[in-house]
Amino acid sequence: MIQVYSEIGKLNKVMLHRPCNELYQINPFNLEEMLFEDTPYLKDAQFEHDSFSKILKDNGVEVVYLKDLFYQAMMREDVRRSFILDFTELSNISSIRLKEKVKNHYTNLDLNDFIDSVFEGLRRDNPYFKKKDSLGEMTYLDDIFIVNPMPNCYFTRDSSVNIADSVIISNMGKQFRRREPLLLKYIHQYSDEFKDNPTINLFDNTLPYGIEGGDIIILSDKVVCIGCTERTSPGAIEYVSMKLFEKGYEAIYAFELERGRNAMHLDGMLTMIDYETFIFNPFLSGSVNVFKISPGREKSIKVISVTDSWEKVLADALNTNAVKLIPCGNGDRIIGNWELWNLGSNVLTIKPGEVVGYDRNDVTLSLLDKEGIKVHTFSGSELSRGRGGARCMSMPMIREKI
Ligand SMILES: NC(=[NH2+])NCCC[C@H](N)C(=O)O
Fold first, then answer.
1. pLDDT value of position 286
2. Is 153 a catalytic residue?
3. Ligand 1 centroid to 178 CA: how many Å?
C-alpha cells in the first residue's frame, strides 16, 4: 500500500537501499558519467547508512529495503525472464550475440547471484565471458563493463515517487541511471508488498520526457511542486499534472532551475520540514521562474507565470499567510554553498518539525535548532560523495495524513 499525501506527515514506512558492492565498481576515471564526486569507501558507507536506518527505526519508522523487494519480485521465473529481457535491452550491450550471451548468463545464475549482478554490473573479465565467441566480446576491450553497475541505487528518491496512493515510475535524465526505474516497475507489480494490489503508475514510460523523484515535493493533498530541471522536463510535468488533476489535485507549481549539476534536483534547493517551514537555497530565490499549472476545461491545463518570491508562492500554495524559509548555511556565500553541496537542505522529515540529516552542516543545523526543529544526525562522509542526503536516500511509502 502507498499512502503519501505530504512531505511532513508522520513517516510510518520507508524504502531504502543499503549500498553494496556496486559502490566498489565506481571507476575513479569515470566519476562524471557515474554521477559521483569521489570514490566512497563501502564499509564506512554501509556503517553510515545503517546509522541512518537505525535512527528511522528508533523513531517508529518501518524500513524496507529495495533489494529485498526486488528479490521477492524476481522469485517467479516468468517475471524474472521478462525482467532480463527489459534490463538487457536498456543496458547498451554492444552486440546482438553478446546480449544473448548475457541473457543466458543471467538466466543460469541462482537468484541471489543474479540480484547481486544486476546491481554490480558484469565485467568483461567475468569467467563466463572468457571464451570470446561474439564480435561484441572481441571489440571495445577498453570498456571495463559489458553491463554497467548501478551505484546510484541508494538514492531511492529518484527512480520512483510514491504519491497519494500511486507511484510515478521515473524516466531518468542521465544514461547511467536509466535502468533503476525498471526495478521499481517490477517491485510495484510483483513484490510480496504489492503483488495482490499492484500500484498504479501515473507516468507513461514510453514518453520521451525525463522525470526524477528528487524534483517532486508533495506540499499537500492538493498541491505539488515540481522542479523543471536538467532531469525533469516540461513535457513530463504537463503529463503528471494532468494525472494528478484526475486524482483531485488542484495545482502544480513548476520551479524552473538552472539545468546542470549545480541545481541537480529541486530537493537540493528546497525541503519542507514543518507545516509552514522550509530549508532553501537563498542564492536562487528570485532568479527562478515559477509557473502555476491548474486544471483547464475538458481535461486541458492552464499555465501562468508567477512572479512572486518563493515565500509568497509557497504561502499561496499552502493557503496560508506566510511561510518561514530557513536559508541553508545562513546564506553565507561560502558556508551556504558548502552546506548546500553537502546536502544541508536535503533532510528527511519524519514528522512535522522533526528531521534526519547529515551531521556535517553545522550552520544550518544550528538554525534549525533555533527554530525549534528537532534534528537527528548521522555521519555522511562517504555517502555524500554521491551528492545526495537523507531525503534523496529514502522513498516514503506510508505517511500519516495531516
Ligand atoms: N534527489 C536527489 N537529490 N538525488 C541525488 C542523486 C545523486 C546522484 N549521484 C545523481 O547524480 O543522480
1. 58
2. no
3. 13
176 CA to centre of own chain:
14
Helix (H) or strand (E) holding 303: strand 301-306
**Cα separation, 10 vs 205, whole angstroms:** 31
**How does DSSP classify residue 120?**
H
**What is the predicted pLDDT for the residue at 338?**
96
- Ligand 1 pocket test target in 174, 176, 392 with most atoms within 8 Å of CB: 392
Residues 101-125 have a mean pLDDT of 97
Catalogue all structural domains in the chain, each as residue range(s) with its CATH number: 11-65+151-172+207-399 (3.75.10.10)
Which pLDDT tens digit goes with each residue over 337-359?
Answer: 999 999 999 999 999 999 999 99
CA of 96 to the centre of ligand 1 (A): 32
Query: Mind listing the pLDDT tens digit for each residue in 27-62?
Result: 999 999 999 999 999 999 999 999 999 999 999 999
- Ligand 1 pocket, residue 336 CB under 6 Å: no
Helices (H), 133-212: 135-138, 156-159, 180-190
Distance from the alpha carbon of residue 8 to the mean position of ligand 1, in angstroms? 21
Cβ(187)–Cβ(194) under 8 Å? yes
Any atom of ligand 1 within 6 Å of the Cβ of 180:
no
Q: What is the pTM of this model?
A: 0.96
Cα gap 121→146, rounded to integer Å:
8
Q: Which three cell numbers stand for residue 92?
A: 547498451
Q: What is this model's ipTM?
A: 0.98
Question: CB of 385 closer than 6 A to ligand 1?
Answer: no
Q: Is pLDDT at 388 greater than 60 in this prediction?
A: yes
Q: Whose CA is nearest to atom 5 of ligand 1?
A: 388
Query: Residue 36 CA: which ligand 1 atom is closest?
Result: 9
Cell of 251: 495545482
Q: Please report the pLDDT score of residue 297 as a whole number.
A: 87
Cα 274 to middle of ligand 1, angstroms: 23
pLDDT at 1: 95
Residue of 300, 262, 288 whose CA lies nearest to 387: 262
Q: How many whole angstroms from its chain centre is CA 113?
A: 25
Q: Does 387 contact ligand 1 (Cβ within 6 A)? A: yes
Is the minimum distance from the CB of 137 to ligand 1 under 6 angstroms? no
d(CA 166, CA 187) in angstroms, rounded, equals: 13
